[in-house]
Amino acid sequence: MFSLILAAVLACSYVYLRRKDPRMLRNGLVLVAACWFAVTGVSQVLAQWFPWTQWITLGIVALTPLAVVVLAGFLISNGVRMMRREGRSLGNLLSLIAGLALLGLPLVAALLVLTLNPVAIGLAALLFFICSYFGVVFVVFLAYAVAYGRMKHTITPAAVVILGSQIINGKVPPLLRSRLDKGLEVYRGVSAQEELAPLLIPSGGQGADESRPEGAAMADYLVAAGAPSQHVIAEEKAKTTAENLQFSAAVAQGQGRGGAMVIVTNNYHVLRAALLSRKLGLDAQVVGSPTARYFLPSAFLREYAAILTEHKVLHALLCLPFVALTVFLTTALVLASS
User: Fold this and answer.
1) What whole-number distance in Å separates Cα of residue 161 and Cα of residue 235?
2) DSSP conformational letter for 235
3) pTM of the entire structure?
4) Residue 297 domain-assigned?
5) Measuring CA to CA, how many Å separate 326 from each of 109, 267, 312, 323, 330?
6) Any residues with CB less than 8 A from the CB of 18 and at least 6 apart, and which?
7) Which ranges does the record mark as transmembrane (predicted)?
8) Using one digit for the tens of pLDDT, what is the confidence trace for 65-80?
9) What range defines the domain where residue 94 resides?
10) What is the C-alpha to C-alpha distance for residues 312 and 306, in angstroms, rounded to an integer?
11) What angle do CA 299, 320, 124 make, to 5 degrees?
């Protein structure tokens, strides 16, 4: 019963924190914790009322290694598909790397333990602690990325900013087209209700392998799709998501549209874009467009890696207790074996 009470408290906290500012990753931590205690509480109640349900719980726990193997197989298969369809860049290989790691790291830990060497056992313990920590962080990130991506924008924007991605032969590929179509949907939904239509700002500079700025190609697509040319102002200098947001905000301000913005990107990218918009102090909400399913595993892993990199000092500090615990356990094993 205590678990259910705690789950209810955490659920209320999640609702409050999300209403206060949905662009916070801590909301995901509270959400995952609420779900965990809710499942735990329900399992405990069912075990009291229907004792046979304990066997179901034990069965689920026993099948966990099989689930890990199945997940690893799926990621490896997806990584091979990504490599064939999208090329061999590091970002496209992330699901393959993650799948191999899921299979390889438990084997490495087991081999270290089998040596019966205290230092090797300590390294296996550290490997377990670190992998568990980053696994939990990934679950928090993924859960809240999905939750945030399903939120509807609640503001009337002065500008709709569409984040760029790579163009091919000067044209808009399907992934970027999805963003532009979503941006048009937001634009039309607002302009049909308001006297002053929002400004459409397609944002993206020119990469080394691109024949023109992304923003220019995106602007051509928007106008060809029916957006009034006077409502489309391209931003053509940004190289990163942070620059997309900063430079687009400056364009909006320069056009007298310094109010709230709706930022449009693909669904896997919404959370990081939202976190960055908050960090930059922008009054903005982020909405996501659909993405091909085969692309999502690597895309979410890439976003997760980017968020870890942006907060690497914090995560390093949070891992220090695991290092200290490992040193303590290793020292205890060495003393016990001497």
Assistant:
1) 9
2) B
3) 0.88
4) no
5) 14, 39, 21, 5, 6
6) 27
7) 28-49, 55-77, 89-114, 120-147, 313-336
8) 888 888 889 899 998 9
9) 2-149+313-337
10) 10
11) 75
